[in-house]
Design brief:
globular; alpha+beta; 12 helices; Beta-Lactamase; seven-stranded antiparallel sheet
């Protein structure tokens, strides 16, 4: 039967789905209200097949795209009776225990695509919303002890029924937000995005026929699996384990077993769930493992539902990676990236010629806000920050990039931050703190100074990789830590990596310092011309060139 399908047509359909997901992304970006979406691109879009398996994904955050298939499957499980899902419906969820996967700020919209009375695909998107209620502005507190303190929970409910908005749901959304105008704008951007995806999928089906379309998706999933299996055969089989102390003092553990046809990540031997918000859902633990799996198998090839068929993730209920309800999860993202980095580090010890040294590996989420001094309106800044990646077997680490979880996102330009928010950006540059020396040095972290322009502003941050810096390979030097320094207008400085609701006043400065990645290889083996180039560009100081690279001795 397969031979009756033209392989070129199947590939055209598969590429058309990718283009449709990209168009969904563009529609959302161009119509969103919040800079965290339209500038930073803290969002993701995708199209699944009728079973909820990812078939096409837009740009944006890889960890967000990994949410969408899991959300669709949960909606299908919840609304499993005939007639409960209809053409024109749009569903909304942010509940990490019921398909939302991440935390309450990340809102997911999903829409079924019907041909006649049959669902042939789903469109979906996810984006970070500035505020969804809860105990603090921005809805994310490092002091939350249960999820109810982190905002309103939407456990997969209909937002739009047969094309008509359900007013009561809209009212509940806006009534439980400190910035309802931003919420409304971002919400309708999400609706526009899933509707664009529906329209494009229907165009593809109408052009090629329903049966050909459905077969194309099945073939695409099978191809994704074949790519992964082929890549697995290139990895050294074995069982690899790692225990790593975290900034909190807890020890996270992982065991990875690599076979020719299976990649097993065992996370069962890990600490009990955190009493605060430093937890992540079981689905998100799977996403962290999926990204690490893709890192070492076929990072340059496709990623769809079939790609991850060889992956198995073992979890234990009640741990930090699979907490019991109603554990708080507001800072899930730091635990996610800790887990991803743990898996990569475990494998890098066995495969140092394949993987880089450790990077700053933190979202470095920086949340601050208050009353805008010019407009008198509330504002909230939600910024992931740039940092340095580790040196690799082949080259220096990348400087000033987002973490592995953030993919194709961008930093918010200083001009936009100053125009939209009540701050001045005094300083933005790479820094020259100690760390990252190596044959191939780590990429540089950044320094950003935000000057507050009004009294009674607030700040919340939760950075990891502070006490435990980025890890080196093959004789390189550890990277530098992630942290912030508060420079008070009235004098004095304070250093933090985790703080919630800190009060700031006019002319106080938030100095963000993100980590430089760790080095790969012996610094004394680094090429002299590269050391001199680093000095010329200000990446290292003369003192560092002498201390870590022995510059004068080598020149002598």
């Amino acid at each position: 039967m397969t031979n009756n399908y033209d392989p070129i047509t199947l590939e055209i359909i598969q590429n058309s789905l990718q283009a449709a997901a990209d168009e969904m992304f563009a529609a959302m970006r161009r119509t969103a209200m919040s800079a965290i979406i339209y500038e930073v691109l803290d969002m993701g879009t995708g199209i699944t097949d009728r079973h909820g398996e990812l078939a096409g994904s837009g740009a944006g955050i890889p960890a967000f795209v990994g949410v969408l298939d899991k959300t669709v499957k949960q909606i299908m499980r919840k609304f499993d009776q005939p007639g409960e899902i209809e053409a024109g419906d749009v569903f909304i969820t942010n509940d990490p225990y019921n398909g939302g996967v991440t935390h309450l700020n990340d809102m997911v919209l999903t829409m079924p695509v019907f041909v006649g009375d049959e669902i042939v695909a789903w469109t979906a998107n996810i984006a970070h919303w500035n505020d969804v209620g809860g105990m603090v502005p921005g809805s994310m507190s490092t002091e939350a002890t249960e999820i109810f303190q982190e905002g309103m929970i939407y456990p997969g409910v209909k937002l739009i029924s047969r094309g008509k908005p359900i007013r009561s749901v809209f009212d509940i959304l806006t009534s439980n937000c400190r910035m309802p105008d931003y919420l409304t704008g971002d919400l309708w951007a999400g609706v526009a995005s899933v509707r664009v995806g529906e329209r494009r999928v229907l165009e593809i089906v109408n052009k090629y026929g329903k049966d050909v379309f459905l077969h194309a998706l099945e073939a695409y999933m099978d191809y994704g699996e074949q790519v992964s299996l082929s890549a697995l055969k290139q990895l050294p089989n074995g069982v690899y384990s790692l225990a790593e102390e975290q900034d909190s003092g807890q020890v996270y553990k992982v065991t990875v077993e690599v076979k020719d046809d299976e990649f097993i990540v065992d996370l069962r031997d890990n600490p009990k769930q955190d009493p605060g918000p430093f937890n992540m859902s079981a689905d998100d633990a799977i996403i962290a493992a999926q990204i690490a799996f893709k890192n070492v198998t076929s990072p340059e090839r496709i990623a769809n539902g079939g790609t991850f068929r060889p992956l198995k993730v073992l979890l234990r209920q009640g741990t930090v990676f699979n907490p019991n309800y109603p554990a708080a999860m507001g800072i899930y993202y730091e635990i996610s990236i800790r887990l991803h980095d743990l898996i990569v580090r475990c494998l890098a010890q066995a495969m140092p010629d394949l993987l880089p040294a450790g990077g700053f590996a933190s979202i470095c989420g920086t949340l601050f806000g208050g009353i805008h001094p010019d407009t008198g309106r509330p504002y909230a800044v939600i910024e992931p920050e740039l940092g340095g990646w580790g040196g690799s077997p082949h080259t220096d680490g990348e400087p000033g990039q987002f973490s592995a979880f953030h993919g194709e996102t961008y930093n918010c330009p200083a001009e936009v931050a100053e125009a939209r928010y009540g701050v001045t950006v005094d300083y933005l540059s790479f820094h020259d703190e100690d760390g990252g020396a190596g044959l191939h040095r780590g990429g540089k972290g950044v320094r950003i100074d935000y000057r507050i322009r009004s009294d009674n502003a607030w700040l919340t941050v939760a950075y990891t990789r502070d006490n435990v810096p980025p890890w080196p390979l093959e004789g390189g030097q550890s990277g530098s830590p992630n942290h912030i320094v508060i420079r008070r207008a009235k004098g004095g400085q304070e250093r933090y990596s985790v703080i919630s609701g800190l009060t700031l006043n006019t002319d106080d400065v938030i100095q963000v310092m993100t980590g430089t990645g760790a080095g790969w290889g012996d610094p004394r083996q680094r090429d002299l011309a590269l050391i001199e180039d680093d000095l010329k560009n200000g990446y290292i100081t003369p003192e560092q060139a002498e201390q870590y690279y022995g510059l004068s001795q080598r020149n002598g």
